[in-house]
Amino acid sequence: MYQVNNTADIKEVFKKHLKAENYVTDKTGVKTIEILGASFVADKPAIFGTPNEEYIKAEIDWYNSKSTNINDIFEDKEPPQAWQYSANKHGEINSNYGKLIYSGKYHKQYDKALNDLLINNDTRRASMVYQRPSIWKEYKENGKNDFICTNAVTYYIRNNMLHAVVQMRSNDVIFGYRNDYAWQRHVQEQLQHDLYFNGIKTELGYIYWQVQSLHVYERHFHLVK
């Protein structure tokens, strides 16, 4: 497998965009720096800044619970503002990633991908699809603003290594990447464990990160500097 870019390379591209003042203005009027069609090995848990491990644990637990209500993320405090912005007045969202890959409503995709890898170690179809055509209606349903950011993730066993290719519609480098990376590594590790339990021993491979719009908001430009 060949890949030129890693997180260090992506950092340098953003630094160049910022220095050149190569800005894109988003729908709220905020400046961003953006890479279209970004593709790199996600070899670090953060591109800029430091992951919030306490929050990451809470979010992964919430994903695993399959709850679509953001008020279930914490017991004793409000959910993050980004989730509040996405939810309707009742706290409901679309993007509980655990529900999207584990639940019967979305065809138990995790189980199907695992089974496909067990049947054929060389398969190219061990995919878990997060996005759906009906999102065009559902993203704004009852006051939501949640157009799912992850399109799909596909898993490959190559040379006894379990790799993941993550394909995203949109990814904020600061909070989005850190939290999404943690979730994708969690699922990859779970899949490796379940393969081993079923007699297939693999090493943990790469996560290939492919994003249609990878961006940093103006309030985080100081981290890029």
Strand content: 15-25%
User: How many angstroms separate the termini?
Assistant: 32 Å
Radius of gyration in whole Å, from Cα? 18 Å
Helical run tally:
8
How would you characterize the largest beta sheet? Answer: 6 strands, mixed
Total domain units:
1
Question: What is the H/E string?
Answer: HEEHHHHEHEEHEH
Placed side by side, the strands forming the largest sheet appear as: 1-2-6-5-4-3
What is the average of the pLDDT values? Answer: 96
Mind explaining what this structure looks like?
The chain has 225 residues and is α+β, with helices and mostly antiparallel strands. The chain has one domain: 2-Layer Sandwich (Thymidylate Synthase, Chain A). It contains eight helices and six strands, in the order αββααααβαββαβα. The chain has a six-stranded mixed beta sheet. A hairpin with a 2-residue loop joins β4 and β5. The mean pLDDT is 96.
Brief write-up:
The protein is α+β, with helices and mostly antiparallel strands. The protein contains 8 helices and 6 strands, in the order αββααααβαββαβα.
